[in-house]
């Protein structure tokens, strides 16, 4: 049996990751957008952020590539900054006035390294 998917997840908590991908995947994502979506989806189920995420990129006609931990950390920081900006806009949009304080983090669930591995779309 074969099946085709634009985005998929396997392993423990894969249902959560797959649901996230179904809600957020769009056709035509470039490499950067695909990696960002992949990391966002993994942050839904990984407890300690970049420390417990490993990403292997496979593309037709290319060698398998492991994404460096430092690069994953940069994506996580970027994602967290975006989440903070969204939270600040929501607070400011409700007439809260003043500056927003505190921190916002991406919801995470515990689990072992390697859970919820994703397969990026478009062969990336």
Quick structural gist:
By secondary structure, the chain is mostly helical. The chain has helices spanning about 15-25, 30-45, 70-95, and strands at about 10, 55, 65, 115-120. The chain has one domain (about 10-95, about 105-120).
Tell me the layout of helices and strands.
Blueprint: E1 8-10, H1 14-24, H2 31-43, E2 56-57, E3 65-66, H3 69-93, E4 117-119
Provide a descriptive summary of the structure in words:
- The structure is a single chain.
- The chain contains 3 helices and 4 strands, in the order βααββαβ.
- The protein is mainly alpha-helical.
- The chain has one domain.
- A hairpin with a 7-residue loop joins strand 2 (56-57) and strand 3.
- Helix 1 packs across helix 2 and helix 2 packs across helix 3.
- The radius of gyration is 16 Å and the shape is globular.
- Mean pLDDT is 76; it is low at 96-124.
Features:
124 residues; mainly alpha; two-stranded antiparallel ribbon; disordered C terminus
N-to-C SSE string, H for helix and E for strand: EHHEEHE
Q: Round the Cα radius of gyration to an integer and report it.
A: 16 Å
Strand-pairing-aware structural class: mainly alpha
User: What's the shape?
Assistant: globular
Strand order of the largest sheet: 1-4
Count of distinct structural domains: 1
Number of helix segments? 3
């Amino acid at each position: 049996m074969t099946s085709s998917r634009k985005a998929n997840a396997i392993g423990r908590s894969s249902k959560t990751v797959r649901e996230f991908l179904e809600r957020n995947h769009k056709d035509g994502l470039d490499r950067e957008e695909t990696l960002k979506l992949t990391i966002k989806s993994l942050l839904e189920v990984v407890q300690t952020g970049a420390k417990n995420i490993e990403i292997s990129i496979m593309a037709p006609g290319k060698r398998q590539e492991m994404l460096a931990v430092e690069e994953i950390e940069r994506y996580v920081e970027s994602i967290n900054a975006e989440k903070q900006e969204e939270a600040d806009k929501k607070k400011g949009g409700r007439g809260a006035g003043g500056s927003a304080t505190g921190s916002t983090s991406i919801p995470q669930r515990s689990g072992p390294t390697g859970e919820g591995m994703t397969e990026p779309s478009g062969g990336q």
